[in-house]
């Protein structure tokens, strides 16, 4: 079993949360993600995102994303936090974890940080 794990590892929690909200808002506007987010316990929030998207109100979509959703779907913090979360996935039975730098926020710096400092061991 494989999983994709989004990460923002620039040790700036506020920017990481904003990047995570942007990402969830982007994906949350699509019906398949409504089902996924709902299955993870975010049904009300998912429906609010879709409603905001239908009204073409991107800020409303982003406002529907709670911080706890961002924290559960992404790694925020440092490359050590990323390593720790990946170990949790392995312990839960995931065979492969694909690290995806959050495409929002400071993507290039985030990518460089992961490439420069992340080591699986």
User: What is the average per-residue confidence, as pLDDT, rounded to a whole number?
Assistant: 91
How many DSSP-defined strands?
3
Order of helices and strands: EHHHHHEHEH
Which regions contain 5 or more consecutive residues with pLDDT less than 50? none
Q: Tell me the span between the first and last alpha carbons.
A: 20 Å
Q: How many distinct domains?
A: 1
Strand content bin = 5-15%
Give the assembly state of these chains.
Answer: single chain
Shape by Cα distribution: globular
Counting H and I runs of at least 4 residues, what is the number of helices?
A: 7
What does this structure look like?
The structure is a single chain. The chain is an alpha/beta fold. The chain has one domain (2-117). Helix content is 61%, strand content 13%. It contains seven helices and three strands; from the N terminus they run E-H-H-H-H-H-E-H-E-H. The chain has helices spanning 13-28, 31-39, 43-54, 58-63, 67-73, 79-91, 107-117, and strands at residues 2-8, 74-76, 96-101. It has a three-stranded parallel β-sheet with strand order 2-1-3, with helices on both faces. Helix 1 packs across helix 5 and helix 2 (31-39) packs antiparallel against helix 3 (43-54). It is globular and about 45 Å long. The mean pLDDT is 91.
